[in-house]
């Protein structure tokens, strides 16, 4: 029976994306002069895991590329080559190629063969060059030789403990024995791929036990493992499946194949001799040498050693069982280059010099194992399912509001239990809504982690030295906004690198540190998130911006405030760059940045100081699915004003209302003259109050500017579920979305930013009149 494994494609693609991102981050943080062994091991494991998964699904180009990369990384982590900056550059370039190949396979397309061939050739050249300049490496042989006696010594300790305590050795003795055996396995030549050949069925075989696996998955795994070698024995015992495999692949490749179907805790790999009958059905309760307690595992290993002849040089030696994991393979089980150990007739205890590194390896492996356990507590859920859940919770909140509206006419004295139940329902509905919304929230590290590579490459291209500093990576933002903020932030970072931060020579001449600093930060402020891009460069030049604006025919003057001057760079086609490059200078970026931010319900501000640097500040709502709003009445209509724009409300006096040119009106509030926008005039609402002194004036602030909005009366504050108006109707000028009120009626949510832009334009025309 042939089973379809394409159902696991998405899991592979998702995990491979995460591994590539992790690999890039580790490479960027790697100290070339003194690389951290744990980081090198983690980079190697990422490449190895991707290779194993790609081989499982038949992604040939991806497999071949990662195989060459993995070989280089393996030599690096074993100190067989000295890292150089050009090597790191090539590894990063390879990561980009792997990302492209992954994207092609995801789209059911074949990757570009020429690109794959070029990067493989580049990696092969690095491999050849490093081998030519490297001294012969034979240091691994003593380590392997000293590890085997450690196993023998550990088994002897168990035998002595059994003699003293009646067959039950202390737990710590067993644990030490298992650890020693595990170290011996990792030091054996088999880890370099010299496993038992497919034709040597009479000798020891790779023994794979898969625990708690369903029948369908058993068939699938058996079929996939059969593609990696010859299954010479198989035993089913309840939900467990044990196979003896004659193969020339390493145990890590076996793990990589199995991990796409079952969890790490379900896989046990060891060595043993296949049973005579290759289709046995074991009893559910029958103990197995690969199962049971650690003591039984070591005893079974000891029996295998006694029954089987010593392995020849370059072949795999019998070993005790070792548990392995999902995509994230434990550090201790990664392949290690080793030379065949010479046989000794009287093994001695391992020297302290060999035991100390082994203990360090075990300590280093524990955090990785703990991390793997933590990952096992999470699940992958499609975004569409989360969106559906959020929509249903939104409908529940609307229904709850309708019930509250209906019961508001009841007498609380006669229906106290009903009112108590409604109050509890409202609390639970709000808690549920907040909990569901938090599922869509993602940390800003998802965005910030993309920029170290960009800054590194672009700074090198521009001949500048730049240090990237990030703050608030754990600050959360809605997933839909996270994905849409990447492009605007990328443009701002490129602008800071190209226009803001000076060259090394210019910075030294100005008395600054030769290395410029670029800071990305994120923080919550009320119901918003504030993202800032700051640099310590030259800052914006006011005179240069005004001169460029005048040259393009814009109406500007020296009396304009700094804020108004800085906002000129957001106009379409505006750029102060003296030459156009592939980085910037075409004047088609900042206006797009501003439009994108505004489409997300946010705004962008700039502050700058000549010679000290600039800061671009982006303010966004945490989510577009719900918002806290102020319900206002205009005529017989109800509108929603986003609460984060509302500053205050007041009833003006007649002497505070002024009419200026073209009939436009302004209101004076504590000495400040604010443009007055009558909401009934904007939306042609009949029956509204015409005079400001009869209605209410609400002071709004957005994009760093304040204006007054005339309404009839305030209804109240409430949290509303945002409904996309364009999806259900069409785009309406001055309206950002809609919501359903408790009585079932539809209320429109005012686009405050759009009204602000209109009043700014009108106010500018008035000032010129």
UniProtKB/TrEMBL annotation:
<dbReference type="InterPro" id="IPR051315">
    <property type="entry name" value="Bact_Chemotaxis_CheA"/>
</dbReference>
<dbReference type="InterPro" id="IPR005467">
    <property type="entry name" value="His_kinase_dom"/>
</dbReference>
<dbReference type="InterPro" id="IPR036061">
    <property type="entry name" value="CheW-like_dom_sf"/>
</dbReference>
<dbReference type="InterPro" id="IPR036890">
    <property type="entry name" value="HATPase_C_sf"/>
</dbReference>
<keyword id="KW-0145">Chemotaxis</keyword>
<dbReference type="InterPro" id="IPR015162">
    <property type="entry name" value="CheY-binding"/>
</dbReference>
<dbReference type="InterPro" id="IPR002545">
    <property type="entry name" value="CheW-lke_dom"/>
</dbReference>
<dbReference type="GO" id="GO:0006935">
    <property type="term" value="P:chemotaxis"/>
</dbReference>
<dbReference type="GO" id="GO:0000155">
    <property type="term" value="F:phosphorelay sensor kinase activity"/>
</dbReference>
<feature type="region of interest" description="Disordered">
    <location>
        <begin position="273"/>
        <end position="376"/>
    </location>
</feature>
<dbReference type="Pfam" id="PF02895">
    <property type="entry name" value="H-kinase_dim"/>
</dbReference>
<dbReference type="InterPro" id="IPR003594">
    <property type="entry name" value="HATPase_dom"/>
</dbReference>
<dbReference type="Pfam" id="PF01584">
    <property type="entry name" value="CheW"/>
</dbReference>
<dbReference type="InterPro" id="IPR036641">
    <property type="entry name" value="HPT_dom_sf"/>
</dbReference>
<feature type="coiled-coil region">
    <location>
        <begin position="415"/>
        <end position="442"/>
    </location>
</feature>
<keyword id="KW-0067">ATP-binding</keyword>
<feature type="domain" description="Histidine kinase">
    <location>
        <begin position="416"/>
        <end position="624"/>
    </location>
</feature>
<keyword id="KW-0175">Coiled coil</keyword>
<comment type="function">
    <text>Involved in the transmission of sensory signals from the chemoreceptors to the flagellar motors. CheA is autophosphorylated; it can transfer its phosphate group to either CheB or CheY.</text>
</comment>
<keyword id="KW-0597">Phosphoprotein</keyword>
<keyword id="KW-0963">Cytoplasm</keyword>
<dbReference type="Pfam" id="PF02518">
    <property type="entry name" value="HATPase_c"/>
</dbReference>
<dbReference type="Pfam" id="PF09078">
    <property type="entry name" value="CheY-binding"/>
</dbReference>
<keyword id="KW-0902">Two-component regulatory system</keyword>
<protein>
    <recommendedName>
        <fullName>Chemotaxis protein CheA</fullName>
        <ecNumber>2.7.13.3</ecNumber>
    </recommendedName>
</protein>
<dbReference type="GO" id="GO:0005737">
    <property type="term" value="C:cytoplasm"/>
</dbReference>
<dbReference type="InterPro" id="IPR004105">
    <property type="entry name" value="CheA-like_dim"/>
</dbReference>
<feature type="domain" description="CheW-like">
    <location>
        <begin position="626"/>
        <end position="761"/>
    </location>
</feature>
<feature type="modified residue" description="Phosphohistidine">
    <location>
        <position position="48"/>
    </location>
</feature>
<dbReference type="InterPro" id="IPR004358">
    <property type="entry name" value="Sig_transdc_His_kin-like_C"/>
</dbReference>
<keyword id="KW-0808">Transferase</keyword>
<keyword id="KW-0547">Nucleotide-binding</keyword>
<keyword id="KW-0418">Kinase</keyword>
<dbReference type="GO" id="GO:0005524">
    <property type="term" value="F:ATP binding"/>
</dbReference>
<dbReference type="InterPro" id="IPR036097">
    <property type="entry name" value="HisK_dim/P_sf"/>
</dbReference>
<dbReference type="InterPro" id="IPR035891">
    <property type="entry name" value="CheY-binding_CheA"/>
</dbReference>
<dbReference type="Pfam" id="PF01627">
    <property type="entry name" value="Hpt"/>
</dbReference>
<feature type="compositionally biased region" description="Low complexity">
    <location>
        <begin position="299"/>
        <end position="358"/>
    </location>
</feature>
<feature type="domain" description="HPt">
    <location>
        <begin position="1"/>
        <end position="105"/>
    </location>
</feature>
<dbReference type="InterPro" id="IPR008207">
    <property type="entry name" value="Sig_transdc_His_kin_Hpt_dom"/>
</dbReference>
<dbReference type="InterPro" id="IPR037006">
    <property type="entry name" value="CheA-like_homodim_sf"/>
</dbReference>
């Amino acid at each position: 029976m042939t089973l379809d494994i394409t159902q696991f494609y998405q899991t592979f693609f998702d995990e491979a994306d995460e591994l590539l991102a992790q690999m890039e981050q580790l490479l960027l943080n790697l100290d070339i002069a003194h690389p951290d062994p744990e980081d090198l091991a983690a980079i190697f494991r990422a490449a190895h895991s991707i290779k194993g998964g790609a081989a499982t699904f038949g992604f040939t180009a991806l497999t071949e590329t990662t195989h060459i990369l993995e070989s280089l990384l393996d030599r690096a982590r074993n100190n067989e080559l000295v890292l150089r900056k050009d090597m790191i550059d090539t590894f990063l370039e390879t990561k980009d190629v792997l990302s492209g190949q992954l994207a092609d396979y995801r789209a059911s397309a074949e990757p570009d063969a020429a690109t794959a061939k070029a990067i493989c050739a580049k990696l092969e050249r690095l491999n050849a060059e490093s081998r030519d300049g490297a001294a012969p490496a034979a240091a691994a042989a003593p380590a392997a030789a000293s590890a085997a006696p450690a196993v023998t010594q550990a088994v002897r300790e168990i035998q002595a403990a059994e003699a003293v305590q009646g067959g039950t050795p202390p737990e710590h003795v067993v644990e030490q024995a298992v650890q020693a055996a595990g170290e011996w396995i990792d030091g054996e030549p088999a880890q370099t791929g010299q496993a038992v050949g497919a034709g040597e069925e009479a000798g020891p075989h790779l023994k794979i036990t898969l625990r708690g696996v369903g029948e369908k998955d058993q068939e699938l795994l058996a079929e996939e493992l059969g593609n990696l070698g010859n299954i010479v024995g198989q035993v089913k015992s309840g939900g467990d499946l044990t196979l003896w495999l004659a193969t020339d692949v390493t145990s890590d490749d076996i793990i990589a194949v199995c991990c796409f179907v079952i969890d790490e805790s379900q896989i046990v790999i060891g060595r043993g001799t296949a049973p005579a009958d290759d289709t046995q059905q074991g009893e559910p309760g029958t103990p197995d040498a690969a199962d049971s307690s650690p003591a039984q595992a070591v005893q079974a290993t000891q029996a295998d050693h006694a029954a089987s002849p010593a392995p020849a040089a370059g072949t795999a030696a019998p070993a005790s069982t070792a548990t392995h994991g999902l995509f994230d393979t434990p550090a201790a089980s990664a392949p290690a280059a080793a030379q065949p150990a010479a046989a000794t007739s009287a093994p001695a205890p391992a020297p302290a010099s060999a035991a100390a590194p082994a203990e360090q390896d075990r300590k280093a492996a524990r955090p990785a194992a703990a991390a793997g356990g933590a990952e096992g507590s999470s699940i992958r859920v499609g975004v569409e399912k989360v969106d559906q859940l959020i929509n249903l919770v939104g409908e529940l909140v609307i229904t709850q509001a309708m019930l509250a509206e209906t019961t508001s006419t009841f007498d609380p004295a006669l229906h106290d239990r009903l009112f108590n139940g409604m109050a509890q329902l409202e609390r639970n509905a709000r808690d549920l809504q907040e909990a569901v919304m938090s599922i869509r929230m993602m940390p800003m590290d998802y965005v910030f982690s993309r920029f170290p590579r960009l800054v590194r490459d672009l700074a090198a291209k521009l001949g500048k030295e730049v240090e990237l500093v990030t703050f608030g990576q754990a600050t959360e933002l809605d997933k839909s906004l996270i994905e849409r903020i990447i492009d605007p932030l990328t443009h701002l970072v490129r602008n800071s690198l190209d226009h803001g931060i000076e060259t090394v020579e210019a910075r030294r001449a100005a008395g600054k540190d030769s290395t410029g600093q670029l800071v990305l930060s994120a923080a919550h402020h009320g119901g918003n998130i504030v993202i800032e891009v700051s640099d310590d460069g030259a800052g914006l030049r006011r005179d240069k911006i005004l001169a460029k604006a005048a040259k393009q025919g814009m109406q500007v003057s020296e009396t304009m405030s700094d804020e108004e001057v800085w906002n000129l760079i957001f106009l379409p086609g505006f750029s102060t760059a003296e030459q156009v490059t592939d980085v910037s200078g075409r004047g088609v970026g900042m206006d797009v940045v501003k439009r994108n931010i505004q489409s997300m319900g946010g705004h962008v501000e700039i502050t700058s100081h000549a010679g000290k640097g600039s800061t671009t500040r982006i303010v966004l709502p945490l989510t577009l699915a719900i918002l806290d709003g102020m319900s206002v009445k205009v005529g017989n209509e109800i509108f929603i004003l986003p609460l984060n724009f509302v500053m205050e409300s007041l009833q003006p006096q007649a002497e505070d209302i002024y009419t200026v040119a073209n009939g436009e009106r302004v209101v004076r509030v504590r000495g400040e003259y604010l443009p007055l926008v009558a909401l009934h005039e904007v939306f042609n609402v009949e029956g509204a109050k015409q005079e400001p002194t009869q209605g209410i004036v609400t002071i709004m602030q957005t994009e760093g500017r304040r204006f007054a909005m005339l309404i009839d009366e305030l209804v109240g504050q409430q949290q509303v579920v945002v409904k996309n108006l364009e999806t259900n109707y069409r785009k309406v000028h001055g309206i950002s979305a809609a919501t359903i009120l408790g009585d079932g009626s539809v209320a429109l949510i005012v686009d405050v930013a759009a009204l602000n832009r209109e009043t700014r334009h009108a106010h500018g025309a008035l000032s010129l009149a």
